[in-house]
Amino acid sequence: MNVNSLLNSIMGTASAGIDKATTAAKSGSMPGGLLGGAAAGGLAAMLLTNKKARKMGGAAIKYGGMAAVGGIAYKAWCAHKENQNTAQTAPATSNQSFHSDSSNALPAVPTGSIFDLAEEKPTLQGEDMRLILIRAMISAAKADGHIDATERTRIEQQIKDLSIGKAEQQFLVEQLRAASDPITIARLSENEEQATEIYLVSLLAVDIDTEEERRYLDRLGDALHLPTDLRQNIEYEVNYIQTP
Questions:
Q1: Where are the domains of the chain?
Q2: Confidence (pTM)
Q3: Which Pfam families match (predicted)?
Q4: Which of 5, 104, 152, 223 is most open to solvent, judged by the fewest CB atoms within 10 Å of its CB?
Q5: What is the pLDDT of residues 63-117, one digit of tens each?
């Protein structure tokens, strides 16, 4: 499978995606981008409601690209580790707050680490981490049940029109047909770093304005064994992405 081709069809190139997302945002229409922007009618526009797509567009405008997912996740994870170190050296207080800083800059991701998503990143089981993140996004995007059988048929037809190979199309169709199951997605994680990335992309794909979506994220976070402060850090970063 050509993962780069698949990613380009979903997320596009960073520069083109940011331009498209910016133009769409200014016109008030649905962004055609997913952290970097797919072409109009791409996977983001197929799977997401207008509100969700606007959130993705906000991420595209500020950062862009799959590599940024690793950077944002790394920033939240580093803040979690710093909180842990602080908690071990200072008395705990009931009012202690856990969140990342509000800087625009993303920290430099260690080359070759699981957060370095600019290139293929195989897990211990041999699956490309970027494919796992796509699976997580699609599963979360379906959590509110807005994609019924009729909508799924329409999306599958649009997938066939994407400029990607048969294997890549089949992968997307399989994920579209799979159950929206946070437990199955959580089992794809092998460590806390991967869990951080999975939770981040899942959060980007939902609005958390329905009971189903909140329940999905809570079950996912529990199954990933993510500490409360790390979840808060991730949610802080995603909320910051949406801030103008």
A1: 66-88+105-242
A2: 0.79
A3: DUF533
A4: 104
A5: 456 777 888 899 999 999 988 877 766 555 444 444 555 555 677 888 889 998 8
